[in-house]
Amino acid sequence: MEVEAPRVARxxxxxxxxxxxxxxxGERIPLTIADYDAAKGSVVIVTQTIGVSTRKIxxxxxxxxxxxxxGPLGRPSDFVTETQGGLCAKRxxxxxxxxxxxxxxxxxxxLHERGxxxxxxxxxxxxxxxxxxxxxxxxxxxxxxxxDDGSAGFRGLVTELMKELIDNRGQRYDEVITVGPMIMxxxxxxxxxxxxxxxxxxxxxxxxxxTGMCGACRVSIGGRTLxxxxxxxxxxxxxxxxxxxxxxxxxxxxxxxxxxxxCKIGL
Amino acid sequence: xxxxxxxxxxxxxxxxxxxxxxxxxxxYSVEEAxxxxxxxxxxxxxxxxxxCPVSIAIPEFIGKLLEGDxxxxxxxxxxxxxxxxxxxxxxPQETQCEGACILGIKGEPVAIxxxxxxVGDWNIENGDKSVAQQTAGRKVAIVGSGPAGLACAGDLAKxxxxxxxxxxxxxxxxVLEYGIPEFRLPKQRIVAAEIDSLRRLGVVIETNxxxxxxxxxxxxxxxxxxxxxxxxxxxxxxxxxxxxxxNLNGVISANxxxxxxxxxxxxxxxxxxxxxxxxxxxxxxxxxxxxDAVRTARRLGAEALIVYRRxxxxxxxxxEEVHHAxxxxxxxxxxxxxxxxxxxERGWVRAIRCVRMELGEPDASGRRSPxxxxxxxxxxxxEAVVMALGTSPNPLIASTTEGLATQRWGGVVxxxxxxxxxxxxxxxxxxxxxxxxVILAMGAGRTAAKAIDEYLSTK
Lengths: 267, 459
Hints:
The structure holds two protein chains of two kinds.
Chain A: E1 2-4, H1 6-11, E2 17-21, E3 29-37, E4 42-45, H2 52-58, E5 68-73, H3 84-88, E6 92-97, H4 101-113, E7 119-124, H5 133-139, E8 142-147, E9 154-155, H6 158-167, E10 175-179, H7 182-195, E11 198-202, E12 218-221, E13 224-227, H8 228-231, E14 234-236, H9 242-249, H10 255-260
Parallel strand pairs in A: 6-7, 6-10, 7-8, 8-9, 10-11
Antiparallel strand pairs in A: 1-4, 2-3, 2-5, 3-4, 11-14, 12-13
Helix pairs in contact in A: 4-5, 6-7, 7-9
Chain B: E1 10-11, H1 14-17, E2 25-27, H2 30-37, H3 47-50, H4 58-67, H5 70-80, H6 84-90, H7 97-100, H8 103-106, H9 112-126, E3 139-143, H10 147-158, E4 162-166, H11 175-178, H12 187-200, E5 204-206, H13 217-222, E6 228-231, E7 237-238, E8 251-253, H14 254-261, E9 280-284, H15 288-299, E10 303-307, H16 319-327, E11 331-333, E12 336-343, E13 349-362, E14 368-372, E15 378-381, E16 384-387, E17 391-392, H17 396-400, E18 425-427, H18 430-433, H19 438-458
Parallel strand pairs in B: 3-4, 3-6, 4-5, 6-18, 8-16, 9-10, 9-16, 10-11
Antiparallel strand pairs in B: 1-2, 7-17, 12-13, 13-14, 13-15
């Protein structure tokens, strides 16, 4: 969905997010930025219907209006402050799961526009659940797909594909950046730890204001409590307490919802 | 000598109001207001005015009210405050105007707050709704639409400046909107109405605009040609205790709890945002925010109690709020300090472990500092814990504005007039002082408006 938001589009950088409210009774929910165009004054968001708020957003038609659209929020990815020489010398692998492919795209695109080529893995349950593969293909050095059922690309989990690339296909990475479901990022972090590869995870914690005011998004990073909205959303994945983060993500799911919930992206 | 007793303001019955979010205090009728107004001695040197952070001409407005000229009474207040209905409800009058009232020496002071509220509410209903002539004045940007920003905006607009307020949230009002509950300060009827009166003066409010992210102080000045900026971004960052178990599910900051209930209207089932209270909530802290949180929890159906490490005498909350909380069935556990929060097997709060305290020697603040009683640990079972321990300024603006000096604790360094280390950039309210009161922030906003006018006049 492309949203007209000139100020947000002008200020946005890779790694940042927006807070959206669909209508007056609606919740404020954080959504990742899938693309932005300062000249056009627009920002692209990608949402998967998983609850009331995302259903409302996905029900909108072209020409409709989102009641509130605030951002860009969070710190941009660390790499935007690195020198081009430093970045070119680095082999970066992005590991995206499900709609996590959306925020990875502006990161890879930003690097590509500066002559820095990165590899990308997009994982999903099946071919139908894969998103942004064409866009990604145009900016990534190598794009690898992984699906649980093998309907596209590698059959298996993204972590298995990572091992395959490193162990059997001679790929070597200096840094991994992962965006996707918490459980996937947890296992990506465990995998890269074994290889000793620096890893950044972009967390999708619960938020209300998104500006540091409420603390709903607190996470434990190496034993310190930080706020995802202002200190993140990107953190050193090897320091994140993913079990706590996952538990906190479910805080407002009722018992019933928890029982009924079946992960729609196959995790 | 004054023979009339202070006229009490009618209130909702405690048992009824503990189950709804309607306003606790009904305020005065005209007759009650005039009877109370007749108690004012109209002192030659009114101590109440000197004790008011925005110097409202109190005896003058009370006199006009007594004469029955409510329009003139409102006009008198509006000269110095654009938010009388708000201040009449939330100011700590007992330590300001009413605390200074001569009548208070031997008896009860004039109920200045309730009278201000009466006049303010009358003005919302009956006051002038005409829209000011738009002038293409010099542009001033204000960061934050809380009390400091609104007060500054009002004064600058009256002076003919073209004022734009940038608000990070989706509704203007700052703490008036997200922090103070409906039962103390009605949002639509009072807050929105008083903000609308500022819009009629020509003040423009841009919501969903985070200064430091969407725009910066520098981009406002360089690209959008604002000639001065007033930083009134408040103190929005919640503090936590740093004890074990604080990240368990069910432990939240008072800011989050109140934002969910007030701004997001989780207290109204037609709204989507959830709020968790469980059967029993422990609120940690003794300030006004703690009272607001505990009384909100009660209204959401929970058994709610306050845990405070000092004694009753040190409670920083307004006496009226503590009194109202007690009436509503809130339990106070004084001289009690949390040491850990305990969770169940699912990672949810099941209890808070506390230690009893006793008062020792006075500390730097002059209050006797609490000392732990050895071996006195005990647990209070609960399903939610709300931390109301105070807030500090958000570093977002300071960190994105080059050359803006800040204190080590995050406050923006500003002179008495609000001038910062950057020419043309002023600051005031909680962003400078750390968490304080609505009226002090308004006072800082007014002072800064004057300083901005002087700065731009000589520039």
